[in-house]
Amino acid sequence: MASKTFTREEVAAHNTEGDLWIIIDSKVYDVTRFRGMHPGGASVLLEEGIPGQDATEAFFSLHRYEVLERPQYKRLQVGVLKGEEPQCYATSNNGEISNVPYAEPSWLAEGYHSPYYTDNHRRFQKAVRKFVDEYIYPDAQARELDGKRPSQSVIDKMAEVELHAMRMGPGKHLKGRTLMGGIVKPEEFDYFHELIITQELCRCGARGYGDGINSGCVIGLPPVLNFGSPELQARIVPEVLAGKKFICLAVSEAHAGSDVFGLQTTATKTEDGKHWIINGTKKWITNGTFSDYFTVGCKTEDGFTVILVERQEGVETKPIKTAYSSAAGTAYVTLDNVKVPVENTLGEEGGGIFVMLSNFNHERWVMCCTSARSQRLVVDECMKWTHQRKAFGKPLNSQAVVRAKLAGMIARTESIQNWLENITYQMCNMSYREQANKLAGPIAFLKMYSTRCSQITATDSVQIFGGRGITQTGMGRFIEHYHRTVPFDALLGGAEDVLADLGVRQAMRGMPKNARL
Ligand code: HEM
């Protein structure tokens, strides 16, 4: 029983193969029978300094804190040390703000200030974090392992507090909804609230799952919200935001990714002009395997047109095996003579590029939010690991070469977050049209810069974690995951080089004609 107390001397008497106790962080464990099942082997538990002794340091240099939290291992605890309190605790995913330096953006760190966040944002952040840690984190870890799509119970829970609606950003779709239990009024909800949601969600450290929980909707629904007919909106939007139906954006193809003018999926009108007949294929479609609706980019007589397709005869989806988990529902979509009413056209016929462009800024900004926070997760992991792991008799962080790597990743993470907050502030103060004009370049640059940085940070973090950084279980599991999935950020929403060029071309367009050195 965990409530029993023992002195260190009493524990020390249980020091043989047939009667084996150890102390970890003031808790006493009977590992006699567990020894034969220990994933790290039986012999290590009999090594010098372990039987009947305080094994705290040895334990934390080899195991994550969460190991002790697993029910099957919790049961091994037989008591606690008399008059001693646990000194170690998990600083992640317990609903609290971490006090590990740089584990939180500065606006959340004690004693720091920010011009951007109000008391309302702070209350909102607390509630979102609690929600994510309680409901989403456990499902994220389980689904990331089994590759199944996110549990419907989590999607429903998210709908209860209107997380799906809030992830669409500020706007009229929030009207009449009770957001996060009423903490923020629909008309007060701004891009900083949305940034908070996105960044809190990616603390789960499960990239595929993160996309699985309705990222398709974040990029697939805005064209319906902004360009769909009132009838289409009335039919589609409520059920999607309630988490009962799923939608995805289906633009990229095997033939063309960033180059939307190179798309080959065609939509041709029937003779009576009442329907589109769509033929083609779409590739890398997030949430595609389980989507009910597809926002499809098509080549039409007038150019490029976006059309909403409902799952029906002629629409087939099959999973694509990518580097991240199949929880994301990444699909190859085939469209064979799919008949769609012309009323499903989103925006003008031939005006698809405008529909897409108006979506891209928001989509890329969301990705910047994710990338910035994921890099911070790596900083957090590296700070803890280098603090608790000893090599050559000293903690890893006592080595200058390790500290230099930490310095780089901290500086990159901080600069990205600060730039991101500046852009978010501009978004809060610009109309959608102004944003499209003035922020397409800066957002493209930020995304390019952020994903460049993230790859350097991923490489350095693997060096810091060594073999554990390439191992899917144990101490380095988040690092392995990050390093494996970081290229997604650099590709989705426009490849780095394409975005860099877009930013410079935008700047060139703004050059005063008479500017001279
Ligand atoms: C209540 C006590 C313990 C439990 C429940 C436990 C559990 C585990 C688990 C689940 C693993 C698999 C890796 C992971 O998921 O992190 C593991 C690995 C390991 N454990 Fe333990 N362990 C305990 C105590 C110890 C102690 C005291 C030592 C002593 C040095 C030890 C040495 C190891 C080693 C060497 C590995 C392999 C690590 C690796 O592959 O990187 N364990 N243990």
UniProtKB/TrEMBL annotation:
Transmembrane segments: none annotated. Residues 3-82 form the Cytochrome b5 heme-binding domain. It comes from the Eukaryota. Pfam families: Acyl-CoA_dh_1, Acyl-CoA_dh_M, Acyl-CoA_dh_N, Cyt-b5. Gene3D superfamilies: Acyl-CoA dehydrogenase/oxidase, N-terminal domain (1.10.540.10), Butyryl-CoA Dehydrogenase, subunit A, domain 2 (2.40.110.10), Butyryl-CoA Dehydrogenase, subunit A, domain 3 (1.20.140.10), Cytochrome b5-like heme/steroid binding domain (3.10.120.10). GO terms for cellular component: cytoplasm. One of its GO terms (molecular function) is flavin adenine dinucleotide binding. Keywords: FAD, Flavoprotein, Oxidoreductase. Its cofactor is FAD. SUPFAM superfamilies: Acyl-CoA dehydrogenase C-terminal domain-like (SSF47203), Acyl-CoA dehydrogenase NM domain-like (SSF56645), Cytochrome b5-like heme/steroid binding domain (SSF55856). PROSITE patterns: ACYL_COA_DH_1 (PS00072), CYTOCHROME_B5_2 (PS50255). InterPro entries: Acyl-CoA_dehydrogenase, Acyl-CoA_DH_CS, Acyl-CoA_Oxase/DH_mid-dom, Acyl-CoA_Oxase/DH_mid-dom_sf, AcylCo_DH-like_C, AcylCo_DH/oxidase_C, AcylCoA_DH/ox_N, AcylCoA_DH/ox_N_sf. One of its GO terms (biological process) is fatty acid beta-oxidation using acyl-CoA dehydrogenase. The keyword Flavoprotein applies. The keyword Flavoprotein applies. Belongs to the acyl-CoA dehydrogenase family. This is Cytochrome b5 heme-binding domain-containing protein. The lineage of its organism: Eukaryota, Fungi, Dikarya, Basidiomycota, Agaricomycotina.
